[in-house]
Write a structure and sequence with these properties.
single chain, 292 residues, mainly alpha
Length: 292
């Protein structure tokens, strides 16, 4: 934006000084070309930021999915804490079905949310960068989002080197300013020179600090974008796999809460119920295999 503002100023000055009856001067042509190029660069930058915002939202949603699934297991177990422990097979089956219905409903809502967010991200990619429908096009987008934005693999080294160079320059300028010595043929070092050197160092330090945030976040967003592009909607999770996952989460919750909440066998009951569901599903799908 700063470069564009300067280019616009130069163009305005060149145009104001020109004769309307004469062809455009080389200075006018150069100023117009520079301004047009910067406008195009700004449009591309805006498009890249828009796509990164979509991908960042998707990355946030994916990161929140697993904790949300675990929270659904905890909520389902807590919902049964005040109930009497099942004593018959029918009561156990009913309790297991109620538990799994709660968890399955939450899982389905989470999956639907992620699927919708992936769809929006894919559509944003295709709308903002239509050429990204091919693998080469997506590679170009990725390169523009990293290397062309100064976030490449060597960005940390370059930013760190810039801090060192500007720090040494500031020390040299400050020393010359304090000594008051003037080398032959060189102007004296002024207070403004010192302030400019200090501002350059602060800018380099800010760049490095920003890079430590922006590069990991950009890579995180790009990984989410890659998953959205290559994601293939799958069928619902198999009952045995889902039961095994819920049982593992219940056991984890039992370990976590046992020292501080010695309430009745809630988490264990949930784990037992899901464990039985896992065995039942395994027997149905593999009649010749004996459950372990």
């Amino acid at each position: 934006m700063d470069r564009l503002a300067r280019a616009t100023t130069v163009l305005a000055e060149a145009t104001a000084a020109a004769d309307a009856d004469q062809p455009a001067s080389p200075q006018e042509d150069a100023a117009l070309l520079s301004r047009s190029s910067l406008h195009q660069e700004l449009d591309e930058l805006t498009a890249r930021h828009a796509l990164l915002m979509h991908a960042s939202v998707l990355a946030d949603a994916e990161a929140a999915a697993e904790p949300a699934k675990h929270a659904a297991v905890v909520a389902a177990a807590q919902a049964t804490e005040g109930q009497r422990r099942p004593s018959t097979a029918a009561e156990m089956a009913a309790a297991r079905d109620a538990f799994m219905a709660h968890v399955n409903g939450a899982d389905d809502r989470i999956a639907q949310t992620l699927s919708e967010q992936r769809r929006l991200t894919r559509e944003a990619l295709q709308r903002i960068f239509p050429y990204a429908v091919t693998s080469r096009g997506r590679h170009t987008v990725r390169r523009n989002l990293l290397e062309n934005s100064g976030l490449g693999i060597d960005a940390y080294q370059q930013a760190s080197r810039a801090i060192g160079e500007n720090a040494r320059k500031l020390q040299s300028v400050e020393a010359a300013y304090r000594s008051g010595a003037v080398s032959f043929g060189r102007p004296s070092v002024s207070h403004d020179d010192v302030e400019q050197a200090r501002a350059a160092l602060q800018c380099a330090e800010f760049r490095f600090a920003d890079l430590r945030i922006s590069r990991p976040n950009t890579l995180r967003a790009l990984r989410a974008l890659d998953r959205a592009v290559h994601h293939e909607p799958s069928g619902s999770e198999a009952p045995a796999a889902r039961a095994a996952r819920i049982a593992a989460q219940s056991r984890e919750r039992s370990k976590t809460t046992a020292p501080t909440a010695p309430r009745t066998h809630t988490a264990t009951t949930a784990a037992e119920q899901v464990h039985q569901a896992h065995h039942s599903a395994a027997q149905q799908h593999q009649p010749g295999v004996r459950p372990a």
